Amino acid sequence: MRPILPYDVRPDPGLPIPAYWEASLDRAPAGDEPVGGGEPLLEAACGYFARRGLPGETGQVLAAPGAEPLLLALLSAVDGDPVLARPAAGWQAPVTRLLGRRVYTAPTAAEGGGVPDPVALMEAVRRARAEGGDPRLLLLSAVDDPSGTVSAPELLHETCEAAAEAGLLIISDETYSDTLHHRDTVLLSPAEMLPDHTVVLADLGATLVPSSVPAALARFPSTEHGTAWRQRTAEALAALRAVLSAPVAAGVAHVLGEPPEVTDRTAAANRLHARTAAAAYRAITGAGALCRPPQAGFQLYPTLRVAGLDAAELEEHLAVTLGRHVAGGHRFGDDPAEPRVRISTGALHGRTEAERRSTLDASDPLSLPHVNDALEALSAAFTAAAPTPSNPVLPGR
After folding, report:
1. Is 75 helix (H, G, I), strand (E, B) or coil?
2. How many CB atoms lie under 10 A from the CB of residue 43?
3. Cα-flanking dihedrals φ and ψ of residue 83, to 5°?
4. CA-to-CA distance for 21 and 262, rounded, in angstroms?
5. Which residues contact 208 (CB under 8 A, 6 or more apart)?
6. pLDDT score for 252
7. Which of 99, 256, 369, 380 would bridge with 48, disulfide CB 3.0–4.6 Å?
8. CA atoms within 13 A on the CB side of 137
9. pTM to 2 decimals?
10. CA distance 211 to 203
């Protein structure tokens, strides 16, 4: 198996390509979009954000071929060092380091979510500045990759207040905000709390476009500073030639409009993610691992506390046993000594397009043979590495 690359650490939703996506590509002209997206795409993006409580004008949004170039452009457009949550999505730190700036981290709260604990954030900023650093940005995500958990609104509010007190601008990665498993989960955006100081970033491959298609959006504050930040970001995208092709832009504009065929598909996908993630949680914890219950997305972040086992070793064991990439906690900035991994539950949906389609369409996906076999394999893989009398469980959460 080849080494894990930065783009391998994204969880796979395990969904088939919808027919409406391919149809929208077939109807589109050839060529490239303008840098940042043409007017139809930006209008569709404004509607997308407005339906999520973040109204704005086309001059506040940009589109790019993937979250990586968009984040790189965002960071290059402002001065200062970034602060990341710990753990954080595995693609974020490699992108931030491309600019040669110092990257600081602040630990997330024990209850989950990708938002730093406010006290830990203030302490991280204080230490960084005492050492000569210049932290000015906070990159967070209320819906977390790797853990699939959601930050409580109270914690998010306190962290936003701490960021404001520390003079940090916020980049809010809201890639998984549309993947909540239960309707009663309360989710807020930092852009609702600090609208003049928050840029929202969303990678659409988690929900609206096929995961193999790089497409992402950014929404900027409607302030003089936000306008300038957007302009510099667009210039950076132009320098990178990071533009969407016209067919992809047409497909993205279609799904951002969220017609019934798209919303029905999104709802069905979330129901599937909720069921398979819950089943995977039961399989993993039943095999001896510790794990926070998933609340969103299609990922779990279990710990298997076995003496002498670390994240890289658990990653290798599970990858070999399952026959697919499994990302250890060290890929997300977590403690390498902790035997923790991120499990993508989309892998349970099937290996082929036909299997994935049958899983999405099934009234009881857990009854399908290939899903049941995958769950049994997952349980067996953890059991094989689980504690025995000669290989005890280590204390801890």
Report:
1. helix
2. 17
3. -115, 125
4. 9
5. 178, 252, 255, 256, 262, 266
6. 97
7. 256
8. 23
9. 0.94
10. 9
Q: Is the pLDDT of residue 356 over 60?
A: yes
Neighbours of 38 (CB within 10 A): 18
Give the Å distances, CA to CA, from 194 to 171, 172, 220: 11, 11, 12
Residues near 315 by beta carbon (within 8 Å), at least 6 away in sequence:
326, 327, 328, 331, 341
**Cβ neighbours of residue 365 under 8 Å, at least 6 residues apart?**
272, 275, 276, 349, 359, 371
**Residue 225 φ/ψ, nearest 5 degrees:** -65, -40
Q: H helices within the chain, ranges in order?
A: 19-26, 39-50, 67-76, 92-97, 118-130, 153-165, 190-193, 224-240, 246-256, 260-286, 311-322, 353-361, 369-385
DSSP state letter for 333: T
Q: How far apart are the first and last CA of the chain?
A: 32
pLDDT band with cut points at 50, 70 and 90 for residue 24: confident
For residue 292, which of 148, 119, 185, 389 has the smallest C-alpha distance? 148
Go through the chain and tell me how many residues it has.
397
Average pLDDT on 101-127 reads 95
CA 344 to chain centre: 12
Secondary structure class of 315 (helix, strand, coil): helix
Per-residue tokens: 277: 């993630």
Give the closest residue to 80 by CA, choosing from 65, 100, 61, 66.
100
**Total Cβ atoms within 10 A of residue 313:** 14
Number of neighbours of residue 369 by Cβ within 10 angstroms: 8
What token pair was written down for 305?
């506390």
Phi, psi of 275 (to 5 degrees): -75, -45
C-alpha neighbours within 13 Å on the C-beta side of residue 77: 26
The residue type at 219: R
Closest CA to 177 of 205, 125, 211, 141: 141
Q: How far apart are CA 392 and CA 395, in angstroms?
A: 9
Helices (H) and strands (E) in the chain, counts: 13, 10
Residue 299 to residues 3, 13, 218, 322: CA-CA distances in angstroms?
A: 20, 9, 24, 16
With H, G, I as helix, E, B as strand and everything else as coil, classify residue 342: strand
DSSP code, position 7: G
Q: Indicate if the pLDDT at residue 396 is higher than 50.
A: no
User: 130 Cβ partners below 8 Å, 6+ apart?
Assistant: none
Do residues 59 and 214 lie in contact, with contact meaning Cβ atoms separated by under 8 Å?
A: no
